[in-house]
Amino acid sequence: MFEPMWLSPKVIRPIVGTRRFYIEGLDFQDPVAARIYRELLDFFGASQAADRQCADLVFIMNSAALPAERDGAYRIHTEGDCVCIEGNTATALLYGLYGWVRRKACGQQIDDFESVPNQALRMIDHWDQTDGSVERGYAGESIFFGVLGSNSHADFRNFPDRRQDDPFRGDLARVTAYARLLASIGINAIALNNVNVRGEAKKLIVEPYLDRVAVLADIFGQFGIRVFLSVNFASPIDVGGLSTADPLADEVSAWWEKIVDNVYQRIPAFGGFLVKADAEGEPGPMRYGRTHVDGANMLARPLSRHGGLVIWRAFVYDCNQDWRDRSLDRAKSAYENFIGLDGLFAENVVLQVKFGPIDFQVSEPANPLIGRMTHTNLMIEFQITAEYLGQQIDVNYVLPQWLAMTNWDTCAPQVDARVKAVVPKLCLVSAHTGFAGVSNVGMDDNWTGNTLAQANLYGFGRMCWDPDATAGSILDEWMTLTFPGLRGPAREAVSEIMLTSNKTFKNYTAPLGVGFMVKPGLHYGVDVNGYEYDRWGTYHFADRDGIGVDRTQSTGTGFTAQYHQALEERFEHAETTPDDLLLFFHHLPYDHVLHDGQTLIQHIYSSHFEGVKEVERYITLWKKVKGLIPQADWENVADRLQAQKADAVEWRDQINTYFHRMSGVPDRLGRKIYA
Ligand code: GCU
Question: Could you tell me which residue ranges the Glycosyl hydrolase family 67 catalytic domain spans (predicted)?
Fold first, then answer.
C-alpha cells in the first residue's frame, strides 16, 4: 500500500490526536459527505460523538456562512478546546478538514480563520496513455492505465473481470490515495488521459471503457474532484464510423450529443472534455475549413445541458516552420490564432493557455493572450512534470518561477492586472476560469520519481488556492508535512537547495531567456543546435556577432506588439527589458552590457560555471540530511544529484565551448573553457 506523501496516517494521526467529531447538516447521500465521515473514522482515527456537546471537532454545513461565489471556502474557529469547521458545501468541509490538519501540523493559527480559494478551477491534466506509458512522465507508469502484467505494482483485485486487453490498471487503492492527496491541496478537476488522444484512448467515451472511467470518477467524486476526458476531434470518424468530423455537419453534432448524453447517464458529475485540436498534427475543425469557435461551441452545446465544460487548448502553432524564414515567430501563434475569436466562445468553453508563448520553458514571458482576451474564459496551463526542467532528475523547485508568473502584471487596464487576478476577472463566467497543471505522478513508490519533485505537485495546488502563498511558505509546509523530523541545519539545507534550484537550472540551461538548446525529442541534456535548423520554431540564432531572437516591432518579428502598451514599450527596447528575458526579445552582440555591468558573453560563461558549482554545493548540503529523512528518500535524491551534476557539467562545457568558438572572446576570469 502506498501512502500519500504529506497525508500519511503515521504523520497525521499524532497531529489530529484522539478527536471526537460531530457533523451537522450534511446529507450522507452526498458522496463527499460520506467520505468526510470515513476519512475521520478510518484515516484520521477519530471517533464519532453522540452529540455536539461531547465533540471536540465539529463540522457545520452552513450555506450562509461564506461567500457563495467561491465554491470550497471554509472557516475554522475554536470554542475552548472544540474546533468548528464551517463550509457551504460538503467539499468545503472536506477542504476544511485537510486545511485544519495542515495548519495544525505547521503551527499556524487556527482560531477564527477563513480560507477562500483564489482560482475556481484547480485542475490536474494527466498525459497518461492507455498502454500504461505517460507522455513526458518521469515517475514510472500511469496510475490509471497499464496493460496486464506490464508493471509489478499492478493490483488487479479491484477489477475481478479484468481481461488481458483491458487498459485500466484497476489499482483503486492507489487512485483513492491519489484523490485524497489532490483534495488535500484543493484540486477539484482532473483529466485522466493524454491530450494527444491515440489508439484505444479514443474509446474512453464509450462502453466498455466508460464503465471503468465511471469507477474512477466515483472515487474522485468522493473527494470533490470532477473527472474530465481528453477527446480526439476526429472521434466521429474513428469511433463513430462517420465519414466526417466537420463540426457544422448535422450528423457530427448529433453523434457528439448522443455520446455526451450517454457519458452523463453513467457519470452525472462528469466534468467535460479537454481538446487539443489542430495542433501538432492532431485533428481539428480547421481541417474542414471551420474555426476553433465552430469546433468548441459544437461540443459545448450538449455539454452545457449537463453542466459540463469544453476545455479547448490554445497551444496551436505551425510545427512545420521554415527555419530559413526569420520573419516567422512561433511565440506569436496563440495570440494570432485566438485573439480574433474573443467573445465568440460559449459560456461553458474554457480556453486553456500555456503560461508562456512558447512551451513551458524555464525562462519565458507571460503569454500575451492573458489580460488581452476579455470575453473568454481562460485557464492558465503549467507543467508540473518537468519536461524541460530537468525531468525529475535535476532538482528544480519551480514555485518561484510559477509565482512570478501568477503575479506577472499584464498591464491590462484593470485595478489589479496580475495574471492571477485578471483570469477570474476578464471572462464570461469566473467559475469557468482557473489554473491547470500537467501531472508529474506515476507508479514510482514516491509518486514523483524524484522525492523532492513532490513539492511541485503540492505547490501547484497551494498556488491555485492561496493568492498570498510564497515559494518559501509553500516549501515550509511541504517539508513539515512530508519530513516532520527534519529540523535545524538539515532543514535549512533542504530549503536552500530547493529555493535556489530553479535559478540554478536556468543558469546552466537557458541564459537570459534563450531556450530549447536541448536534445530534440527527449528534451533532457544539452544540444546547442538540436532545434536550430528544424521545423519546430524554437531558435537562438547565434552567430559570430551575437545571439537571441529579435521580437521587436522596429527590426524583428513584431511579437512585442501583442502586449498591452506598457509591456510592449518595455520589451521593445533592450535597455528596459529585464536581463532574464533579454535574449527572448532581442538579438544582441556578445559585448552588450547587461544591467549588472557584465557583458553578455561573460554572463553566459559565468552562469554556466556557477550552475555547476551550485549543484556541487547541493551534493554537500544533501549530506547533512542523511539519517533525518527515510533512507530510501535520501538515496533517491543523492543518486539524482550525481546525475544532475553530470548533466550540468555537460551543459557548462558544451555551451561555453560553443559560444567561445562563436565569439572568439576569452573568459575574463580565465576559467577552463575547452577551445
Ligand atoms: C509539448 C510536449 C508534447 C505535448 C505538447 C502539448 O510540446 O513536448 O509532448 O504533447 O507539449 O502540450 O500538447
Answer: 113-447
Residues 525, 398 within the same domain: no
Mutation test residue for ligand 1: of 129, 280, 330, the one with most atoms within 8 Å of CB? 280
pLDDT at residue 1 above 90?
Answer: no
Task: Say yes or no: CB of residue 364 within 6 Å of ligand 1.
Answer: no
CA distance readout (Å), 418 to 334, 404, 653: 20, 10, 39
* CATH code of residue 51: 3.30.379.10
Does 353 contact ligand 1 (Cβ within 6 A)? no
Residues 95 and 70 in one domain: yes
Q: Are residues 254 and 383 in the same domain?
A: yes
* CATH code, domain with 129: 3.20.20.80
Ligand 1 pocket check for 135: Cβ under 6 Å: yes
The model's pLDDT over 328-372, given as tens digits with 9 standing for 90+, comes to 999 999 999 999 999 999 999 999 999 999 999 999 999 999 999
**Is residue 568 assigned to a domain?**
no
Confidence of residue 109 (pLDDT cuts 50, 70, 90): confident
- Residue 643 makes CB contacts below 8 A (sequence gap 6+) with 393, 394
CA atoms in the 13 A half-sphere facing the CB of 628: 20
How far is 673 from 663, CA to CA, in rounded Å? 13
Cα–Cα dist 319/333, whole Å = 11
Q: What is the mean pLDDT of residues 214-236?
A: 98
Which of 69, 82, 90, 83 lies closest to 183 in space, CA to CA? 90
* Residue 280 falls in the annotated catalytic set: yes
Residue 430 Cβ inside 6 Å of ligand 1? The answer reads no
CB 398 within 8 A of CB 391: no
Q: Which of 359, 384, 518 to mutate to test the pocket of ligand 1 (most atoms within 8 A of CB)?
A: 359
Q: What does pTM read for this prediction?
A: 0.97
- Residue 166: phi and psi, rounded to 5, are -75, 120
Q: Is 207 a catalytic residue?
A: no
The domain tally of the chain equals 3
- Residue 102 is part of which domain span? 5-115
Active site residue 359: yes
* Whether residue 459 is found in the same domain as residue 325: yes
In a domain, 199, yes or no: yes
Residue 108 sits in the same domain as residue 127: no
Mean pLDDT for 635-650 is: 98
**Which pLDDT value is given to residue 157?**
47
* Bridge partners, residue 21, by sequence: 48, 57
- Three-class secondary structure of residue 352 per DSSP: strand
Q: Would the CB of 315 count as within 6 Å of ligand 1?
A: yes
Asked if the model's pLDDT at residue 152 lies above 80, the reply is no
Pocket of ligand 1, candidates 197, 198, 274, 387: which has the most ligand atoms within 8 Å of its Cβ, to mutate?
387
